[in-house]
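Hey team,

Filing this mostly as a record. A colleague (T.K.) asked me to run one chain through the structure pipeline before their review meeting, and I want the input and output archived in the tracker in case anyone asks later how it was produced. No errors, nothing strange. Just documentation.

Input sequence:
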Amino acid sequence: MLSKNKQKLIQSLAKKKVRDELKLFVAEGDKIVNDLLNTSLQVKEIFATEEWIKQNSTILASSYEVTTVDQGELKKISQLVSTPCVLVLFNQPIPKFDINQLKTELTLFLDDVQDPGNLGTIIRLADWFGINHIICTQGCADVFNHKTIQSTMGAIARVACHYQDKTTFFEAATTLQIPIYGTFLEGENIYSEPLNPYGIIVMGNEGKGISEQLHRYITHKLFIPPYPIGGSSSESLNVSVATAIVCSEFRRRLG
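Output structure:
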């Protein structure tokens, strides 16, 4: 049975201010919930139908607080179009980042990526390509936004996102003398340029690209060429699609 207070609490988590205050986020649906329950993320409370609880009894730890609800109650608290069988409140992880990791790992830097779906897809891509850390500017979408979480398909448990002031971050990063890559229309063909297995890949805002103030920090400007080269094509690629292409090429070089 879902109390009115608990219903209001879950509904309020649609707001970033409340999520930040309570340090919680929501995940919905059988696939993503099952994935996240098998990670180190801490469960606050589970709300599920009796049928889902029976079917998933083997993954439910005795320490979990589980509330049995019906589809009508789930519909009131769900942010999905189709009502799920399970909704879980998770404690927000507090990731740690040592800037010296930039010297040995490939790291993504997102410059004001504002669409939650794009952010979630990029987190999922990072997980696929073995990138453990994503640095986000303060202007990026919230990693714990409901659309972001659902788009990660569970990758949020394996990829750490850190929000940083862009100038402060790059002033520190440049002291490490590592390669800093960025995607530009006037860049060099990514398929013929030398690429390192470590450093920073900067991906820009959906409409404006990489902000002017970051241009001076970029040591390698890359371009994803259309096909055929010089032919008529779309003006640009979606940022998550571009990220997939760039990460794939970096990892292909390691093979």
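Quick notes for T.K.: The CA atoms of residues 168 and 174 lie 10 Å apart. The chain is about 30% helix and 20% strand.
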